[in-house]
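Known limitations

Structure tokens in this collection are predictions and should be treated as such. Users comparing against experimental data should check residue numbering before alignment. To illustrate the layout, the record for Protein phosphatase 1 regulatory subunit pprA is reproduced below. The input appears on top and the generated tokens appear beneath it.
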Amino acid sequence: MEESVESIAVLDHDEDDPSSTILDLTSYQLHDLDSVELPPTLTELDLTANRLSTLDPRIANLSHLKKLSLRQNLVTDATVLPLSSWNALASLDELVLRDNQLRNIPDVSIFQKLLVFDVSFNQISSLHGCAKVSDTLKELYVSKNEVAKIEEIDHFHQLQILELGSNKLRVMENLQSLANLQELWLGRNRIKVVNLCGLNCIKKISLQSNRLTSMTGFEGCIALEELYLSHNGIAKMEGLSTLVNLRILDVSSNKLTSVDDIVNLTQLEDLWLNDNQIASLEGVTEAVCSREKLTTIYLENNPCAKSPNYTAFLREIFPNIQQIDSHVFS
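Generated tokens:
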């Protein structure tokens, strides 16, 4: 026998703010909210992993609501249509529509203070509609869709995280106005050439599983701390000498035969080189100048990983190493 919604719904009160309430209805497989009370003082409503295909009109009256999650439901474009006229929700700062059945970016122009907007794992073919999203936005997630072009994002001057992984992008473009961007996630697309459009404050970039054959294009990203370029067609390590703040470099599963251009990377902690054609173990250790900093190195499935005393040699060269391939040392 199923428990009633009333007995399992979680209604939390923020001790610092007696009027603040959070209603978490995650994974109750609800088809509607008819049997659920929606207190007018709600600030967060989490409806993740249910079976909702319509929006309860009572949500429109939750004037204190800051966060609304409809992740993993049966939400369509028609389902979210009422949102555009729900004026009482104008102060919403986080809207999650991830993992649904959307085909378009919904009209969320009513939310003039929006900070987080997530429409990943849908069937969205275009970023048309982003132009109406508030310029207050700090995090935009549109991964695992069918988007073919980066557009309508030039007004996001406060944006810090842009996630467009697993789409159909071929060109990096229209990024130049994102002056505050900290993280750019473009893995699993069809990009052939790096073009960061002058961004220089960015700290994390992922271009894993694209069609890159060159590493050039990152030279101006002097603040960069994490760079992920695995599963491409890169044959040479280059364009890295200016990235003096880099802590994590992943160039696994490429076509590398040697390790180059990392002599200036004195902060390097993680180096992923596995599944390449690197022959010289000595060449690897000579290239890394951050010997005291390095804690993780992956070299498996390279010719050099078959060297005698491979693990012992690396542990001697890198005194603070904690992991070699899948082997973790205590």
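For this record: The two ends are 48 Å apart (CA to CA). The chain has three domains: 1-74, 95-197, 212-330. Please report discrepancies through the issue tracker.
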